[in-house]
Specification:
single chain, about 110 residues, mainly alpha, Ferritin, 5 helices, about 75% helix
Length: about 110
């Protein structure tokens, strides 16, 4: 996930419908929990970006680059699935049923 420094409102404009739904669910969860969302730097995502940059800078053939990009996309999707799974486990542990439901909807769309 990337951040823009504009808060979640700035990220929803122009986003594809599925992403907008994810962000709306997350905003609802934050609001229900009384937590203000904030931007954080994610070392995992930074690592995935670094891998892609390294691949691009190695000047592979277009075909190989396409497979490298596809692999990076798959890694990113796995990362998102893991993140949602962890948040769902936390919501369940703390008894936040609606948060668990909304995060589960996001997870289902990612899988």
């Amino acid at each position: 996930m990337t951040t823009t420094g504009k808060g979640s409102q700035g990220r929803t404009e122009g986003a594809p419908r599925a992403i907008q739904g994810h962000l709306e669910n997350l905003e609802t969860v934050f609001k229900q929990l009384g937590v203000k969302p904030h931007d954080i730097e994610c070392d995992g995502v930074k690592g995935l970006k670094k891998q892609l940059d390294h691949a691009v800078n190695s000047n592979p053939s277009p075909e190989l680059l396409n497979t490298m990009i596809a692999g990076g996309v798959a890694k990113t999707e796995h990362y998102e699935v893991s993140a949602y799974s962890g948040m769902i486990d936390q919501a369940k542990f703390f008894g936040h049923k609606n948060a668990k439901k909304l995060l589960g909807q996001n997870l289902k769309q990612e899988e």
